[in-house]
Write a sequence for this structure.
């Protein structure tokens, strides 16, 4: 459902806090965007961020926001907090590819890049193939979107981070966004067909350099990528913070998880689910009904001490937004979404090796039931590897409480990117990933936890 990337919700309610994939303003200095090899042997990625700022990322999950300062310096703040972290950056002039990260110098990495436009159904999509320099075969990861409206070509850091470690990446704008034509939709079958077209185009462009090809998908893409792989098999599928339940059950689980984390038991959860059912009625009617049900729940429970923990994936936004605005804007934002989509038949019958990475404390896409279902599929012999990251939220982000009680993302865990790269290369995870709860297939050559 659109219920997993807050960008869609931000489009409904102006002024909500920006999230990791929110689009940057056009004033961001694009000449500095790229992956850099530093003198200490590490890799630093510089990407776009909102309001003319930049964001740095490392392969070990550390990240910070860069704000222009005096004298050409860019001041860094930790993660999505406003706390200075000392990782200030200075760039060379546009075109000379130089960087200085708090005294460590580096140079931008050159990649083999091919821009393209390719057909998928009734749309022409804009894409980009990014390969490490050289002539040998490399694995290629097709980056499949969540529910955002922003250009993946402009804002996905993985299109550079994967090539920086020897893995190709193909990034394309979702239909109706960025450089892609067609009407924006959240129809999973249409989006799966787009992903298949992207994989074909990546293979065509890569030619003899194409090795293993598979999907990497976040959030809503966790429903799309397995479906695409079932229709036309690839070599692997990587899903981050996705779900093995329906979009409607996602909202129910998200409401229940928020109440539980607030310290309340099943009796309060049962009451709070009135909000979930009201939101589901609104979504199921395509924003033509259900608003009276939501208002009735608000009036009934607004003075209860647990009301402040009513979140859900869309309910908290519905509660803040005037009915007229929801009626006007909701249908386009949630266009085509298959609310009753059951992903389990695909997952039960998918022979393609999959890696699922889940956040243990995910409020937007609660992982409890998805983890249980995936563990059962592993026990049944399906080629699935599961990694549950403790103390992380949606996006596999570690977090800290903000002054208003909201979570502030700080970084991703060190093993996360390394695990995805291992899986793209080998189709399995066999390394050491400290403090991650891992379940593996019996036949992957590793000890199964």
């Amino acid at each position: 459902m659109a219920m997993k990337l807050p960008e869609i919700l931000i489009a409904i309610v102006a002024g909500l806090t920006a999230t990791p994939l929110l689009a940057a303003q056009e004033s961001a200095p694009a000449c500095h965007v790229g992956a850099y090899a530093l003198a200490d042997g590490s890799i630093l990625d510089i990407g776009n961020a909102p309001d003319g700022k930049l964001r740095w990322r490392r392969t070990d999950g550390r990240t910070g926001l860069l704000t222009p300062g005096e004298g050409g310096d860019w001041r860094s703040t930790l993660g999505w907090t406003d706390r200075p972290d000392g990782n200030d950056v200075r760039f060379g002039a546009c075109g000379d590819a130089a960087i200085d990260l708090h005294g460590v110098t580096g140079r931008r990495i050159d990649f083999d890049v091919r821009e393209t436009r390719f057909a998928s159904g009734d749309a022409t999509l804009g894409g980009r193939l990014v390969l490490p320099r050289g002539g040998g075969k490399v694995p290629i990861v097709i980056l499949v979107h969540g529910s955002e409206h922003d250009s993946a070509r402009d804002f996905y850091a993985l299109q550079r981070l994967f090539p920086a470690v020897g893995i190709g990446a193909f990034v394309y704008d979702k239909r109706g966004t960025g450089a892609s034509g067609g009407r924006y939709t959240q129809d999973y079958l249409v989006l799966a067909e787009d992903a298949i077209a992207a994989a074909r185009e990546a293979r065509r462009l890569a030619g003899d350099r194409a090795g293993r090809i598979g999907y990497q998908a976040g959030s809503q893409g966790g429903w799309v990528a397995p479906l695409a792989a079932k229709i036309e098999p690839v070599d692997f599928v990587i899903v981050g913070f996705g779900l093995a339940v329906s979009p409607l059950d996602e909202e129910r689980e998200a409401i229940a998880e928020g109440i539980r984390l607030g310290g309340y038991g099943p009796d309060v959860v049962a009451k709070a689910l009135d909000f979930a059912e009201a939101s589901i009625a609104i979504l199921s009617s395509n924003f033509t009904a259900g608003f009276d049900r939501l208002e009735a729940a608000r009036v009934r429970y607004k003075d209860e001490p647990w009301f402040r923990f009513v979140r859900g994936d869309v309910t908290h936004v519905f509660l803040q937004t005037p009915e007229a605005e929801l009626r006007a804007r909701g249908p386009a934002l949630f266009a085509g979404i298959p609310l009753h989509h059951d992903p389990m038949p695909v997952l039960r019958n998918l022979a393609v090796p999959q890696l699922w990475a889940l956040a243990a404390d995910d409020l937007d896409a609660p992982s409890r039931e998805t983890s249980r279902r995936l563990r059962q599929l592993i026990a049944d012999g399906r080629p699935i590897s599961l990694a549950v990251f403790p103390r992380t939220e949606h996006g596999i982000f570690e977090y800290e409480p903000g002054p208003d009680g909201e979570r502030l993302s700080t970084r991703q865990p060190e093993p996360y990117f390394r695990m995805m790269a291992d899986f793209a290369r080998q189709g399995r995870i066999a390394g050491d990933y400290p403090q991650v709860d891992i379940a593996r297939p019996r036949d992957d050559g590793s000890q199964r936890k």
